[in-house]
Specification:
Elements: E1 14-22, H1 26-33, E2 43-46, E3 63-68, E4 81-91, E5 96-101, E6 109-118, E7 124-133, H2 136-163
Antiparallel strand pairs: 1-7, 2-3, 3-4, 4-5, 5-6, 6-7
Helix pairs in contact: 1-2
Length: 166
């Protein structure tokens, strides 16, 4: 099955990715993927000063503050890592969403794409990819690369579990 992710617009020394087949209709998976209010502890839409805004609907140009565990864990005693990003694409027709970091691009350029498509069996294929470029990408690869991959895989499995709930 061909990928629904757009072709990469740049390359870098490290790419994190994950994919999973979900036994749920694509519309349901899309709704779960974009249901940011269900995840207030890990991703919040904010203003440019990182203050949460009332409307938590993902849209292009909105800011996103993420707090994640790398490696993945549900243990709240483990400190989180924060990332402040801007949503660059929300494409309901192609079922794709993306955001990128706000660090200087020469240091770390990273844009995460997530895409859904329907398999021949009528299930939903979830794909996610983030390419890291810039001088900081080498440190990301060296110090947290394997755990970042685990985090992408855990997110895919969590989306699958939630979307497949009755």
């Amino acid at each position: 099955m061909p990928s629904n992710l757009p072709p990469p617009s740049y390359s870098g020394p490290f790419t994190a990715n994950a994919s999973v087949v979900i036994d749920a209709p694509i519309e349901k998976v899309w709704d779960v993927l974009l249901d940011f209010p269900k995840y207030p502890e890990c991703q919040v839409i904010t203003d440019k000063n990182e203050k949460p805004v009332e409307d938590q609907t993902p849209a292009e140009g909105k800011y996103l503050l993420m707090k994640v565990h790398i490696p993945p864990t549900m243990d709240d005693s483990v400190p989180t890592t924060s990332a402040f990003e801007i949503i660059t694409h929300v494409e309901p027709d192609t079922r794709r969403v993306a955001w990128k970091n706000l660090l200087p691009q020469w240091f770390v350029r990273a844009e995460r794409w997530q895409a859904l498509s329907t398999t021949e069996e009528g299930k939903t294929l979830y794909e996610s990819r983030e390419i890291f470029a810039g001088v900081g990408a080498y440190a990301i690869k060296m110090f947290i690369g394997k755990n970042l991959e685990k985090s992408f895989e855990a997110m895919a499995e969590a989306l699958k579990a939630r979307a497949e709930q009755a």
